[in-house]
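Reminder to self: tokens first, then the designed residues, so the page reads top to bottom the way the pipeline ran.
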């Protein structure tokens, strides 16, 4: 089955709606950047560079894209401004394809990993717990048994929120009292999951960045303790970032990547912002697959990141 087989009309509509603010902002800026110009020259490229940087694509990624377009312009000799959107779309899609491993079709789990253990990281307020709840819902909808571990034991609200999501989705949540050892919660969660033949375990972790050494030690300890139950756990370390924070999301990705081995990312809150360009920059700069994107508050509003559909939606293509 093809990689894009599951991308339904409903998902496309959700994606189009979620990226509408980014699309309007970016293309409004591009229109102004090429106003009165008939061909792509140095001035147009300078203006385009400014558009991409101010759209939170990031400086390094922007320079990469501009260099790609310069090569196209040089080889084609004469490129008119009407072709610029098409070339920009093609180069961004190529960039995303080069810098990411192919994603799953639709919330699929790898064979031979049971339970499949996902450790979720991210600062407070990025939508971490909500993303866990939505993931649990998607996995359960596919007939998988899911366990959640409330290992963010430093915030009562984090545990309470996870319990609410567990009740909403209908999956068990393993928790301990406030201030408990997060690694102990992770151990109990995996032990219960193994005993009950669960398919997926999702562990919430504390989102504190003020002391990177403490964060690193804590995440390492959680991993080591989990491996006493499931030797190759975690199978995935998912970093959740708030897309509406723009460049701040880059900094968080940088700090967490130093603190632990992040293997996948989820970028949330893209529906309420014009900063959707951050997805392109983060994909390019960190060479870590963006696996999921959040496009709203609804339980269904988490999508597996589909590079082609994302670019098509951003550029208004079918």
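Designed residues (318 positions):
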């Amino acid at each position: 089955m093809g990689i894009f087989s599951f991308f339904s009309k409903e998902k496309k509509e959700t994606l189009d709606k979620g990226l509408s603010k980014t699309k309007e902002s970016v293309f409004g800026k591009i229109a102004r950047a090429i106003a009165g110009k008939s061909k792509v020259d140095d001035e147009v490229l300078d203006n385009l560079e400014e558009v991409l940087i101010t759209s939170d694509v990031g400086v390094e990624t922007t320079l990469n894209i501009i260099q790609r377009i310069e090569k196209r312009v040089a080889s084609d000799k004469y490129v008119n401004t009407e072709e610029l959107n098409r070339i920009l779309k093609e180069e961004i899609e190529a960039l995303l394809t080069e810098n990411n491993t192919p994603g799953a079709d639709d919330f699929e789990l790898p064979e031979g990993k049971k339970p499949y253990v996902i450790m979720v990281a991210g600062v407070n307020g990025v939508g971490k717990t909500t993303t866990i709840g939505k993931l649990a819902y998607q996995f359960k909808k596919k007939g998988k048994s899911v366990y959640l571990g409330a290992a963010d034991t430093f915030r009562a609200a984090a545990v309470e929120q996870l319990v609410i999501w567990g009740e909403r989705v209908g999956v068990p949540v393993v928790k301990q009292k406030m201030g408990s050892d997060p690694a102990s919660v992770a151990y109990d969660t995996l032990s219960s999951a193994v005993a009950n033949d669960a398919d997926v375990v999702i562990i919430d972790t504390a989102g504190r960045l003020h002391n990177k050494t403490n964060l690193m030690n804590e995440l390492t300890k959680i991993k080591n303790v989990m491996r006493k139950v499931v030797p190759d756990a975690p199978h995935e370390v998912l970093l959740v970032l708030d897309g509406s924070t723009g460049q701040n999301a880059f900094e968080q990705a940088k700090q967490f990547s130093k603190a632990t081995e992040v293997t996948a990312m989820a970028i949330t809150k893209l529906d309420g912002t014009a900063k959707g360009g951050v997805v392109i920059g983060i994909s390019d700069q960190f060479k870590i697959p963006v696996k999921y994107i959040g496009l709203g508050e609804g339980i269904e509003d988490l999508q597996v990141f589909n590079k082609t559909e994302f670019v098509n939606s951003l550029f208004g293509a079918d």
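DSSP finds twelve helices and eight strands in the chain.
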